[in-house]
Amino acid sequence: MVSFAYRYRYDDNMYSALSQFSSVAFDPKDFAYNANTGLNDGMTNTYNSADMTVILGGQAVVGIDVVFKRFSSNTIYLIERLDKADIPPFV
Q: What per-residue confidence (pLDDT) applies to 50?
């Protein structure tokens, strides 16, 4: 179970604080009790991808870091480092 956030990189190479993390991206499959293990095998995530919308920020923002963290940990992992100039404008 993971959640996502982002931060801005500014033209002076400083970084913003992280945005709020998203809700946990987890939707379990149907309940499936396994009598051999005593576990619910349905507790597998039905999601295998995620769509994320990020506000591009003001003129001083030159890049955006997209990050995630696992539900059971405070370690943050970088998914992608985006250059704002490479992102097409939203029309």
A: 77
Six-digit token pair at 67?
Answer: 């990050």
Per DSSP, the residues of 15-78 read: BPPP-PPPPP---B----EETTTTEETT-SBS------------TTEEEEEEEEEETT---EEE
DSSP secondary-structure letter at 82? E
Amino acid at 53: T
CA angle 13, 18, 22 (to 5 degrees): 145
Max avg pLDDT among 18-32, 34-48, 66-80? 66-80
Is 0.85 surpassed by the pTM of this model?
A: no
Cα 64 to Cα 54: distance, rounded to the nearest angstrom? 9
Residue 51, pLDDT score: 80
Separation of alpha carbons 9 and 72, rounded Å:
27
